[in-house]
Design goal:
It is built from 11 helices and 9 strands. By secondary structure, the chain is α+β, with helices and mostly antiparallel strands. The chain has a 4-stranded antiparallel beta sheet with strand order 6-7-8-9. Strands 1-3-2 form a 3-stranded antiparallel beta sheet, with helices on one face.
């Protein structure tokens, strides 16, 4: 009798445990195996919505290889996220190591950010990983809200003053803003002023300021573009009439003889003019091959 009673007690206990598990299985399973939920937030208004050869707009944030990690980082930056969490695919065994290597490669991350709006660029970029497969990226933006509002309103005012409207073709609009920049900005020989706001407000900047300001103008005009960097220089790539071409407003401004020598030229022409300062990574910037 005692054995039967003991068996019934154990049976009822097992049934009770099973009932608890069944009614709370999602919460219990999440304690054992944390739920991998990726929260895709709304992007800001500076997101570029067109695809490049090098990077694609995507909501797929589970990488299976290095190229997908690079594309995820691009989309995080392009969306204007300050922080974002994603996860490695369970079958991608080298994922953590690849994420860390890529995140610690400042030169590579800088080249990725060349493809996003300067207003979504970063001052600091930090990546953390944990043993549950979670990867968290924190981005400290280059420009604060006050600077962005100043840049936005000033650029729109300049476009209006240049009589650029929707009926203008891309070439005409590009020429007008390019000429505005080289007519109103001087090169900062102190090498201290390297932001678009320096070129816009202070009227002096390094090549970074020139290229970033032109990029902001082009985004306002819906002209596809990105920046190109070598070890010591930065300039723009612009998509006109179905072709990607180089535009270097800094060198055009500092060239007293020809302010359009580096205006909408292909890579062969660019390197024939200068192979030292413009010696960029052609394999990375696939659009310019």
């Amino acid at each position: 009798m005692k054995k039967i009673l003991k068996f019934l007690i154990y049976l009822n206990l097992l049934l009770f445990i099973f009932f608890l598990f069944y009614t709370n299985k999602e919460a219990i399973l999440e304690l054992i195996v944390p739920k991998r939920e990726i929260v895709i937030k709304e992007s800001n208004k500076y997101k570029r919505t067109y695809d490049y050869t090098t990077f694609k707009v995507s909501n797929d944030f589970i990488p299976n290889n290095k190229e997908e990690i690079l594309n995820i980082i691009y989309n995080i930056l392009n969306n204007g996220y300050d922080t974002f969490t994603f996860y490695c695919d369970d079958e991608y065994n080298e994922c953590f190591d690849d994420v860390i290597k890529i995140s610690n490669d400042d030169s590579l991350i800088s080249k990725i950010v060349n493809y996003v709006s300067p207003l979504n660029s970063y001052e600091n970029f930090n990546t953390t990983v944990d043993n549950q497969g979670k990867i968290k990226i924190n981005v400290n933006r280059t420009y604060n809200e006050q600077d962005i509002n100043y840049i936005d309103s000033t650029v729109e005012s300049i476009i209006s003053s240049l009589n650029i409207n929707s009926s203008d073709g891309d070439l005409s609009a590009l020429t007008k803003v390019h000429n505005y920049i080289i007519d109103n900005v001087t090169y900062d020989k102190s090498l201290q002023k390297n932001k678009a706001i320096n070129a816009l407000r202070d009227k002096t900047a390094t090549c970074n300021g020139y290229a970033n300001l032109l990029s902001i103008f082009l985004d306002k005009l819906n002209i596809p573009n990105f920046k190109v960097s070598s070890d010591n220089h930065l300039w723009n790539a612009v998509y006109i009439d179905g072709i990607w071409k180089h535009v270097d407003s800094t060198w055009n401004d500092t060239n007293d003889k020809n302010h359009h020598l580096f205006f909408l030229i292909d890579t062969t022409k660019l390197l024939s003019l200068d192979k030292e300062e413009h010696n960029f990574d052609i394999e990375f910037y696939k659009e310019l091959k």
